[in-house]
Amino acid sequence: MKEILVGVSEETTTGVKRLYQMQENGTLLFPAINVNDSITNRRLLLFAVMVVGNGCAATLKQAGACVIVTDIDRY
Asked: Which superkingdom, per the lineage (predicted)?
């Protein structure tokens, strides 16, 4: 999975602290965004796969978010 990820986002204080620790000791595998310190606290870009993606999209839409779904057939 890490080979296809471009980056991640984190919102919790504990999670952000852990990401900073990983960056400092060289174990952070991809870029990370602190949601509370960025424009993403108002706009969320979500990349999810299959069942998880369907569930996330449905939940966000039900909550009133503008949801755009694209499907790429990699096979």
From this structure: Eukaryota
From the DSSP assignment, how many helices (H) and strands (E) are in the chain?
A: 2, 2
Cα–Cα distances in Å, from 68 out to 35, 50, 60? 20, 15, 10
CA distance 56 to 58: 5
From CA 40, how far away is CA 54, in angstroms rounded?
21
Burial (CB count within 10 angstroms: exposed 0-12, middle 13-18, buried 19+), residue 7: exposed
8 Å CB contact between 33 and 7? yes
What's the rounded Cα separation, in Å, for the pair 11 and 41? 9
